[in-house]
Amino acid sequence: MTLAHLPALVVVVPLLAAPLVVLVRRAAAAWAIATAACAFSFAAAILLSAEVAAHGPMSYHLGNWPPPWGIEYRVDALSAFVLVLVSGIGTASALYAWRSAAAELSRDQLYLYYVMHCLCVAGLLGMTVTGDAFNLFVFMEIASLSSYVLIALGRDRRALLAAYQYLILGTIGATFYVIGVGLLYLATGTLNIADLAERLPQTASTRAVLAALAFITVGVSLKLALFPLHFWLPNAYAYAPSAVTALLAATATKVSVYVLLRFYFGVFGLRLVTETLPMAEILLVLSLIAIVTASLVALWQENLKRLFAYSSVAQIGYITLGVSMASPDGLTAAVVHLFNHGITKGALFLLLGGVALRAGGATMGSVQGLGRRMPLTSLAIVIAGLSLIGVPGTAGFVSKWYLVLGAIEAGRWWLAGFVVATSLIAVAYVWRFVEAAYLSEPGPATPGRGEAPAAMLAPALALAAACVFFGLQTSWTVGSARRAAELLLGGVP
Amino acid sequence: MSAAGLIAASLLVPAAGAAGIALAGRWPNLRESVTLVTAVTLLGCVLGLLPSVLDGGRPQLFVLEMLPGIALGFRVEPLGMLFALVASGLWIVNSVYSIGYMRGNDEEHQTRFYVCFALALAATMGIAFSANLLTLFLFYEMLTLVTWPLVTHHGDAEARAGGRTYLGVLLGTSILLLLPAMIATWSVAGTLEFLPGGLLRDAGLSNPALGGLLALYMFGIGKAALMPVHRWLPAAMVAPTPVSALLHAVAVVKAGVFTVVKVIVYVFGVETLAEVRAADWLPVVAGFTILAASVVALRSNNLKRRLAYSTVSQLSYVVLAAAVLVPISIAAAAFHIAAHALGKITLFFAAGAIYTAAHKTEVSQLDGIGRRMPWTMAAFTVGALSLIGIPPCVGFVSKWLMLQGVFAAELWSVAGVLLASTVLNAAYFLPIVYVAFFKAPNGELHGEAPLPMVIALSATAVGTVALFFLPELPLALARSVAGL
Fold this sequence. Notes:
- The complex is a heterodimer.
- Chain A has helices at residues 2-24, 27-55, 77-104, 110-129, 133-152, 158-188, 193-199, 206-224, 232-239, 242-276, 279-299, 304-325, 328-359, 370-373, 375-389, 395-409, 413-439, 454-472, 475-489, and strands at residues 58-61, 72-75.
- By secondary structure, chain A is an all-alpha fold.
- The relative contact order of chain A is 0.10.
- In chain B, a hairpin with a 2-residue loop joins strand 1 and strand 2.
- Chain B is globular.
- Chain A binds chain B through residues 386, 389-393, 398, 400-401, 404-405, 408-409, 413, 416-417, 420-421, 423-424, 427, 431, 435, 438-439, 472-475, 478-479, 482, and chain B through 64-68, 72, 134, 137-138, 141-142, 145, 149, 152, 155, 159-160, 163-164, 167-168, 171-172, 175-176, 179-180, 183-184, 186-187.
């Protein structure tokens, strides 16, 4: 019985936790409520994932209004997979914030932090689970507005500017998206995603539909930081509080990719996206540029949070590269990398937060000789770094495998060569950290001996361990991604 | 213990040993005891698997499914058995040597050194016993990563530069060439299991496709040090000598040529390659590497560098023998993995002993050193003779097998390469022996290196000779690889 309501509860619980936190206000209670709400969603997401794998997609009608009139929540292989990622990272980030946010924020801001955390997670989960294009816009705004606040809470004053930049660009993105949805409504008279997919082929006004595709592409691309719409990202990640950086890096851009996948394959359909308009080619070229330029820029960063922020732009390029292949292997790669990169970056930013806390900042200078001062943290950063490179035995390898396989199966050897060659740039920037941490003597900026507080270290290490676990045990990740790819290419929303 | 249990133990024992070494880090004597006990236990595990492999059994262990349809699994066949025996057996000797070397030279970070060493052995066992390409690749990369801290052990600018070349070439070739080759193999064959006769046998690839794929493999396996992907090996010489001895004369480089033989025999299939003539270019590259590396060795004054280039050249013997593509030469390739290991580790042991006792690193400094370090230089001479291929050393046996293969395949140019390189080997080794024993000593007075080192290098020298007289076991394994 409750299982049937889980698609709604997974969003509603963190959403309702937010006003509850405002009422309670005390930092400890706020933390407990936020963490419990996220943990509930995580558990619910895992249950939903198992349920979907066993019995197929679930549809939930809010207020018992049947779609397409009422709002439908829909859980299938793809959305369940993304739900697990978002709620899992949300929980890890909330656990981590107990010490991390307490150290970075003033006491009276703490409850606000947890309010925004709950709203952001709820918004992202809502975007994932909803089957309604306008409802998706509402959740997108909830997630975006709360993330602007979260970034602005950063201790560095530049965080304000970064949040402002993101606010402007994020709002433009959301506006473009809603214009696109408006055009679709104009053309079809419906907002339900499944219904849209059914009615689009019969619509007369193809021009409106093509305009909608363009608007939605640009809007969502801004949100997912596709090159050249990525300029908001490095600053936002670098100056946000550590727990927020991890949360956003691991989930926000990933959910936007999810929205792109939904609309491309679930609404507009393969023919419109790849034949009528050359979206696959455009996406391919932009992804290639993103991978090369962002990786090269990452090489020259001194601030480690910025370094890995640029690396995120590059890694998102790998995801969109998989999307652009529009083949079973390509989409499997995109979906599985969405998850694998999420946990990898989540681990990295949580670990860097620990370094930043102990050293007052995570720069190349402050990690010199870190291998001796914070051995566990350093080792975990190396492991997550290896996953970023795609070394076998880590999650990143699995993504790379399918990406290269997709390229080879399509007969595009140059693309396979490109993917493996660019991962060598990742070797270079990860090894800058390794050399600093293990071959340099500790410098003046290096923290003294001792790890980050256990409450921060534990979730970070758990995610780093997940990078290895999902590199060796791939039946759930690859299985979900494969089912999701079939679903998307089957044209079923 | 069951066969599957022994396979698991072969991987877990060195891994657990690494943990034990880390925990015992504060008490050096206890720590070194842990290393020695681990090494002996590991050899015990490997030996426990030997009888069933000799009887034609193929003990196996499947752990989990790494990717849909591809397992993380192990299967012990004769080539892997041979490699595992060589690596685990020499690890014991090398550990004794390491204790003398690391203490004699007051090296820092000794705990890290022994931990990484044990992990490197675990990775080596994983490579030796892997049942499919993906498992092999996993441990292949792991071996690169855990040996990087050993190469950069000294942490200075030189070690950093050496480490970058090491990692850059090894990771670079494996990611850039080996990984796509493997994925392409999966794409056409739908399996990555090592199969007798070759898993690509029925894939129906044409000559250019097979040749191209073979090239991806051969240059992608950077650890085999075919020119031009050999630069990492001389760069790795910045490491302490025990690392050069066991890893860069035995475990890492042999992992490379082991993979080469494995790929030729179990991925492509000897008959398939011989039929479509897709490997015709390989003897040329290997022959060039043999000769060119020998010339560089001849011109190197630094002793370790000379030995490193000698290794580059000797590794290509294995590749060349495998590329001749007749059964007896496959056996020669497999046998040479063991033969070269014993000779070269002796030479490196001697080089390290000279450095520890006399602080000499250059060939030109070695005048008369044989009179002060007779044991060391006698062992050096044995190692050198073995690499040249002179009886009564084991190197002769592999050269004999190789020539048999060459005659069977009637590849006279390959015979020419072998002859020329024998002359070159003699030209860069014998002068060292000559000046060591027949020139007057100079400089400060010194004796032999610490006792553990002398014991170790004498043991491997004795082994080099003993294996000439008693080559049955490695020969049986090698012949079984070739199906003889």
